[in-house]
What we know:
It is built from 20 helices and 29 strands.
Amino acid sequence: MIGLISATAAGASARDRLATAWPGRTRVYDGPVREAVERAFAECEQLVCFLATGATVRLLAPLLTDKASDPGVVCVDEAGRFAVSLLGGHGGGANSLATEVASALAATPVITTATDATDIPGLDTLGLPTEGAVATVTRAILDGTPVTLHADAVWPLPPLPPNVMRGAPPAAGDGDAAAPGGTLASERASSGAPEDAPPRTASRAYRPTAGTSGPHAPLAAPPHAGSAPGEAEPEGVVPALPGSGGPRLVLTDRVVGIGAADVVVRPPSLVVGVGASRGVGADEVYGLVRDVLRDAGLSPLSVVELATVDAKADEPGIVGAAGRLGVPVRTYPADVLAAVTVPNPSDAPLAAVGTPSVAEAAALAAGRGGELLVPKRKSSPEGRAAMATCAVVRRAPRGRLAVVGLGPGARDLLTPRAAAELRRASVLVGLDQYVDQIRDLLRPGTRVIESGLGREEERARTAVTEAQAGHAVALVGSGDAGVYAMASPALAEAADDIEVVGVPGVTAALAAAAILGAPLGHDHVSISLSDLHTPWEVIERRVRAAAEADIVVTFYNPRSRGRDWQLPKALALLAEHRTAATPVGVVRNASRPDGTSHLTTLARLDPATVDMMTVVTVGNTATREIAGRMVTPRGYRWQSEGAR
């Protein structure tokens, strides 16, 4: 909940506008300002104060505890001109809230956090738990000081600047603080605190989920120095972490020593399978999981979920243990688990729930083919039989492929989601001319793989290969990436070993239609006239069907220097079913500074004025030119009655 506080009529007006814009997200705090701030600070995750920054600082000062638990605070001036991220920019989400508030109030966001100002991802904004000297290592990254990255595997993180250089993977217990430091940090994290408490993570934004999509998906480290693009990290026994003496960024699920200039980022890599007898207590399940992870040298901060059989979905002991760990419970039908090959099957669970294994089978099922690190182990309560078992599987990292539509070319038609994906990607793949359009939006350290026309298949395969190597990849295309663009060839290459995200974009047909008027007001179809990949016989059959069905048609790729007869032929097919006066809209470079458009008719269109940068929209028998605009009636009854 977002608490809203104001002191004057002007502030209250802006406050109410925000409350109206965000129903269900906000709560207005009336009364004396000091009391309102105190109540909101105690009850809300975030605050928006329509007050002077100085006054807000004085009101907040006695309430502050630490950055991991304090709410994020945004300050808005009474004129509504600026939304200032005042407190908890990363951990409290105030930076993103300031941007949202500014958008809702038509204000300017003011964000002064160093990483945001320099466009470098903050270590506490990755959506992953962190331990250690976050501020120290972040400062080193910002200052350009060499920072060594030690990672067990490649995870799809955002791009990191060139001064972050990959070193050897970490070895358990290595570091200035050696085993005690890492063990103590792990023990604190597994103490059963709520999921947003400081021991769990330095960021209040961390909320583990059962899947791998969305903001908590596995986020990528820069490629290993000297490795080929797309090359995966070596597996097996890792060498000891060299003592560099400088700041280090460690990405691992293992307990490691945390030095004074180290940050450990915990990837969501561990799945714990749990089996239990009816009535088991949460203490027994939680204690078993904690002890198993400790004995295996694994961090509970990397546990992403508990897995069990459907019959135990509501078992209080399992649900309670998951709550203390801050992770969800995933369940599977007994027959699914029974089909999983395990090293330690048993007759007891077969008789009880219909599968010879619960803990190992559930862990392996949820682990997506990962490695069984800890086979089934029983709890050991004093004076009675064990009621819980667990096993641990390490998931292999999943790379992330975002297929991004850039729109028709105008920057203001690039969607915010597309811009966010470009900033998240550590690898960008695209046609050189499209990359040039958005190169300024990329973060420092982004690796760009660009190529020319005619190499679409190569780009699709490259993007998939990079994602399979664990990277966060953005594959870009103009318009919507799923319309005559890169989504189709890329998804034809992609398997289920990577996460795929589609980011829609404004198509050329839609951009052209907005310029022409409302030509797509009723049923419409887009047809490409390029016969490079589709035989002309197939294209002709589709044009003829659209003509007979009286559907508005937008032609993509209508004419090139080597392909000049297809458009006249297509227009002739339409003319068999439409009058010579049928409106036709011609738009070239829709939405771009050099764009042009004009209206003509089916009889008067000169194909010589059309090229590959043009879309041609041909109306149906109801389409009309009204006040210089191309309009296809929707067919509303009230319009028909009014016309009569």
